[in-house]
Amino acid sequence: MNRIKKGDEVIVISGKDKGRRGTVIGFAPFGRVLVEGVNVVKKHQKPNPVKGVGGGIVDKEMPIHISNIALYNPVADKADRVGIKTLEDGRKVRFFKSSGEVVDA
Fold first, then answer.
1. pLDDT, tens digit, for every residue of 22-53?
2. Is 37 a member of any domain?
3. Which of 22, 29, 71, 86 allows an S-S link to 36, with CB 3.0 to 4.6 Å?
4. 38 and 17 in contact (C-beta within 8 Å)?
C-alpha cells in the first residue's frame, strides 16, 4: 500500500515551491509525482496540426520527487507523515503519525 495516492492533497516540504499545496494528478517513473499547480515550467512547444495543438510557450507541470512532498492534514492544517496499519477486520489503512487519525475511512 502506498503512502501517497492519486487525488491526495499534499504540501511541498522542500524545493522552490516549498509551502505550496496541490492535488496529486499522477505518478511518473523513478519515484516522482505530478502535483497540480506545483513545479510549473515554461515549455516551448512546436505546433502539431495533426493533433490540433498550437505552438507557443505553454505552462506545464513537471514531476517532483516523492520525498519532497507530504500529505496535508486538514485537522492540524499542516503537512503530516503517514503510516500504514492493519485494522482488526484485516483491512490496511493509512493514518497520520501525529494524531493516529485514519486518512481514508
1. 999 999 999 999 999 999 999 999 999 999 98
2. yes
3. 22
4. yes
Give me the number of domains the chain comprises. 1
Contact 47, 54 (CB under 8 A): yes
Q: What is the pLDDT of residue 105?
A: 61
Query: Mean pLDDT over all residues of the chain?
Result: 94
Domain assignment present for residue 4? The answer is no
Q: How high is the pLDDT of residue 7?
A: 95
Structural domain including 17 reads 9-75
The contacts found for 93-102 with CB under 8 angstroms, 24 or more apart, are 94/1, 94/3, 96/71, 98/73, 99/73, 99/75, 101/73, 101/75
Which CATH number fits the domain that encloses residue 61? 2.30.30.30
Q: Which residue has the cell 514531476?
A: 63
Tell me: pLDDT of 56 over 90: yes
